[in-house]
Predict the 3D structure of the following.
Amino acid sequence: MKEPLYLFLLALNNSGSTAFIKFLNTSPNTSLLERNGEGQWLRSVRKIMQERQLDLTQEMPWEFIKDQYLQKWNYRSKIILEKSNPNLLRAKSIQKVFPGVK
């Protein structure tokens, strides 16, 4: 099975990102990891992502997080949408693990 395209919306809190990601999700080619578009709230990664969200001295375990995202992915769609606001601080490390990230 081909890996999905990852679209990370990097935006500040209260900037309209939820409305925008929900609009993008009207396409049958997309899927959200959580209802609000924030993968940081997946039960399996919540603790890790909340504890480290602003601590830039600690690297996120992106390979593990990616694996959890793939388990939650709706395989009928081609694009995973993700908009966890703390990701704004970790764009470069995200690019290293998620191929073709947009």
User: Anything to note?
Assistant: The radius of gyration is 13 Å. The beta strands are 5-8, 30-32, 79-82. The chain has one domain: 5-97.
